[in-house]
Amino acid sequence: MLSQPSENALALNQISKTYAGKQVLSQLNLAVPYGSVFAFLGNNGEGKSTTIRVLTGLEAPDAGSVTICGNSLYTKRRSLLSRTARFVPDYRLLHRLGGLIDAPSLYPNLTAAEFLSIGCRIKGLPVSEIDRVLAVVSLTGAAKRHIGQFSLGMKQRLAIAHTLLGDPKLLILDEPTNGLDPSGIRDIRQLLSELPASTGTTVFFSTHNLDEVEKMATRFAVLKDGRIRFESDIPSWKAAQQFNMTLEVGDANAAHTVLLQHGFQSTMTNPNALRVEGLPRDEQPRLHALLVNEGIELFQSYQSKTSLEQWFTNEHTD
After folding, report:
1. Is residue 154 in a domain?
2. Is residue 252 part of a domain?
3. In total, how many domains does the chain have?
4. Which of 7, 124, 205, 259 has an alpha carbon 20 to 30 Å from 66's alpha carbon atom?
5. Domain boundary at 179, 209, 237, which?
6. Which pTM was predicted?
7. Which domain holds residue 245?
8. Across the chain, which distance is largest between two alpha carbons, in Å?
């Protein structure tokens, strides 16, 4: 019997996985709270796809546990022909999640409604589910159109609609915006960011599109060498980031000297401009005051914050 939900929609505890003698996942720990849009980041070859296959029941771990909605996904069993016990997924529990791994396989000769009706029959769901999930992904008006006429973005939304059949509590997506044009990316971003509020579904997705993570995720984790190396909610990460500032001044050389004397690292970009990097937010007024008090003309000041892509490149790329 499945238990009641815990505080996390998904939890991985001490997950390890080895392929051909290579350790891909090493005592991986991760918790995805209910109601979150959780981004799973990492360079190619770090184990993101393996992790997703483990938590969707496609690959059994060598050690550790996966918990979905408070229930253990794997139990150790010994088959009749084997002396060694191995992890086996509880397929009843997999009905609580929807997964989209790799590019979706759709039938171009079917309409959207016909395609979803197949999923309803397989899962034993009423056909009323078709209208519900099409509304969630904003494809109600395309229900009777053939899938072959869909754009890539529409196909991706239809594939997500298919994963939402049966109202799963957890949605797992592997690179959901991969290959989409800006319009398609925007549609997927809006859809995923609104899912927890509109359906109560928690979203866990892997991606290389770090710009989109800042716009739609509530939390993220970085996988490196088979382990989580960093994890944070987006607001806390943003608050901790430093600023870069570009200053237009009367004398960049004099300004550079003053700032250097007071511990600021700056780079002159031309005789009347310089750039200061790694500046805490509360230091900006002091920097301006230093220049003005030294009689240096300050014409304009522009600031920019470190993006997630810049931060990831600096901190987590060899």
Report:
1. no
2. yes
3. 2
4. 124
5. 237
6. 0.85
7. 241-316
8. 86
State the pLDDT at residue 92: 84
Q: Both 209 and 289 in a single domain? A: no
Nearest to 191 by CA among 237, 156, 166: 156
**What's the sign of the alpha-carbon dihedral 181, 182, 185, 190?**
negative
Q: Which residues of the chain have pLDDT under 50?
A: 1
The closest alpha carbon to 137, from 106, 165, 158, 115, belongs to 158
Coil, helix or strand for 103? coil
Q: Are residues 195 and 57 in the same domain?
A: yes
* pLDDT on residue 127: 95
- Helices 128-136 + 152-163 axis angle, to 10: 130
Q: Is 210 found in the same domain as 75?
A: yes
Residue 305: the pLDDT is 80
**Residue with the two structure tokens 């991760």:** 30
For position 2, what pLDDT does the model report?
Answer: 53
CA atoms within 13 A on the CB side of 36: 22
- Find the distance separating the first CA and the last CA of the chain, reported in whole Å: 46
Cβ–Cβ < 8 Å for 56, 94: yes
Whether residue 156 contacts residue 163, with contact meaning beta carbons closer than 8 Å, is answered with no
Q: Is 137 part of a structural domain of the chain?
A: no
User: CA–CA separation, 202 vs 169, rounded Å?
Assistant: 6
Q: How far apart are CA 170 and CA 133, in angstroms?
A: 15
- The CA-CA-CA angle for residues 46, 31, 157, to 5°, reads 75
Q: Among the three residues 237, 258, 291, which one is the final residue of a domain in this structure? A: 237
What amino acid is encoded at 196 in this protein? Answer: P
What is the predicted pLDDT for the residue at 206?
A: 95
Element (H, E) at 40: strand 37-41
User: Which CATH number fits the domain that encloses residue 308?
Assistant: 3.30.70.250
The single-letter code of the amino acid at 111 is: T
Residues 216 and 247 placed together within one structural domain of the fold: no
Q: Decide if 214 is inside a domain.
A: yes
